[in-house]
Structure formats: structure tokens, C-alpha cells
Amino acid sequence: MQSGMRLCKNCHRPIPETTRIDAIFCSPRCGWRYRNKLKREKRAEDIKNQPFNLIEKNYGIIKFLYQNNRTVVSRQKLIEIGFDPDIYSGIKNLIPEDHITDIEIREYILSLDDELVTIKKQKL
User: Fold this and answer.
1) Under a CB-based contact definition with an 8 Å cutoff, are residues 61 and 67 in contact?
2) In a domain, 39, yes or no
3) Residues 6+ positions from 110 with CB-CB distance below 8 Å
4) Is residue 11 part of a domain?
5) Per-residue pLDDT band at 1 (split at 50, 70, 90)
6) In whole angstroms, what is the distance from residue 10 CA to residue 105 CA?
7) What pTM value is reported for the model?
8) CA nearest 31: which of 5, 6, 10?
9) Of the candidates 112, 14, 105, the residue with the CA atom closest to the CA atom of residue 51
10) Other CB atoms closer than 10 Å to residue 25's CB: what's the count?
11) Domain for residue 21, yes or no?
């Protein structure tokens, strides 16, 4: 390789001397491929982290409510402020017909009713 030869950021081939002096790709097509690859990698990372992020979001909502002495909240209000009742870290009680009555989100237990949710802190 000659000194001063620029290499494409995507395919690592030499960048033609006829391109702009600040070019980082050998062609527009190589630039598109590189940016699309980055987008795919970011999307895959976002999907991989999504369940954890959703549990963290639910945890933040429950922790805020508990710390502000809101231990009984309407199920509808909880959903309106962004809580997803299908995302939790564990199930405490399950009655016949697969009806969940209590779910865990870290140190909190949520007792689920058709209309109300009661928030309790577990004794660890």
C-alpha cells in the first residue's frame, strides 16, 4: 500500500483519487451499504435490550408511585402513564384459568384487580 492512500470505510479498498479529498467511501453505493449496516446493527441492539428497557420503565413508574404514597392506583390510570401490565419480572400468585393475581417488578409486588392495582414492597 502506498503511503497516503485512502481506504474505504466500508470495503477497505482504495478510494479513487478522482473523488473528493474528504471522501471516506469508494462510491455512493459503499456509503449506503455502510450506513444500512449501522442501522441494522442498531435496530438489532435495540430489540435485544427492549425487554430490559420495558421492565426498567415499569419499575420507574411503580417506584415513583410508591415513594409518593400512591399504593392503590386504577389500572386504567397506570396504563395511561405508560405502565405495561404484560411486562414484569415474576409472577407471585396464579389462580386457575391462568389468571395472574400478583406480579413482581424487582422489590415491588403488584396485586392486580380488574380495576385497581395495589403496590406493596417485598420484604427482602
Assistant:
1) no
2) yes
3) 62, 88, 102, 103, 104, 117, 118, 119, 120
4) no
5) very low
6) 43
7) 0.53
8) 10
9) 105
10) 20
11) no
Helices (H), 1-124: 28-67, 75-80
The more confident residue out of 51 and 116 is 116
Q: Are 7 and 19 in contact (CB under 8 A)?
A: no
Tell me the helices (H) and strands (E) count for the chain, helix number first: 2, 5
- The number of domains in the chain is 1
Burial of 50 (0-12, 13-18, 19+ CB in 10 A): exposed
| Residue 27, helix vs strand vs coil | coil
C-alpha cell at position 29: 453505493
C-alpha cell at 16: 479513487
pLDDT at 2: 55
Asked whether residue 37 is domain-assigned, the answer is yes
How far CA 11 is from CA of 1, 16, 26, 102, in Å, comes to 15, 13, 8, 54
Domain extent, residue 83, equals 28-121
